[in-house]
Amino acid sequence: MTTDSDSGTALPYRPCVGVALIAPAGGVFVGRRTKDAGPEHVAGPYMWQMPQGGIDPGEDPEAAARRELYEETNVPPDAIRLLGEIPDWLTYDLPPAVMKQAWKGRYRGQTQKWFAYGFLGSEDLIDVLTPGGGAHKAEFDAWRWARLSELPDLIVPFKRPVYEGVVAAFAGLETWAAQASAAQAPAAQP
After folding, report:
1. Is the pLDDT of residue 5 over 60?
2. Domain extent at residue 19
3. CATH number of the domain that 40 lies in?
4. Whole-number Å distance between alpha carbons of 167 and 29
5. pTM score > 0.85 for this model?
6. Looking at the 3D structure of the chain, how many domains does it have?
């Protein structure tokens, strides 16, 4: 017989944020998780993800998103522009075997608030090996720009529905820089 405590449904969700960092050319930042990241992050070839992490007690979700982005990529808050926010929280459950290992078995999964930022800086700001100016442990060992539409195929399968929601919500933002330039262009003179 399976009980709620066996399946993890009695456990809370860990409150987190996620960040879609979008380059002016349209790619979305993805980092490759280190091989020792744990089964909640890496499963076979599925080791690429967008920056995400926990919200500290009393912390505003958007402030947490900016902090996590810096701690994982070294991208400072003055090198980004808020493009969008998903109004709802997106949630996933960990598989039972992973639930027992991840976060000391205290959570059934995560509930995430997602933000999209336009990247205003140069790529040399991005440093996944010594993020946060070297003050934080590297969570990624490589990074690249990926098409928004390919993100669900890169993430561990149990997080895929969240990534599908992110893709649907932020569709159209990959061209944010071109849209901003067009809006600022002077009107044609008659």
Report:
1. no
2. 4-177
3. 3.90.79.10
4. 13
5. yes
6. 1
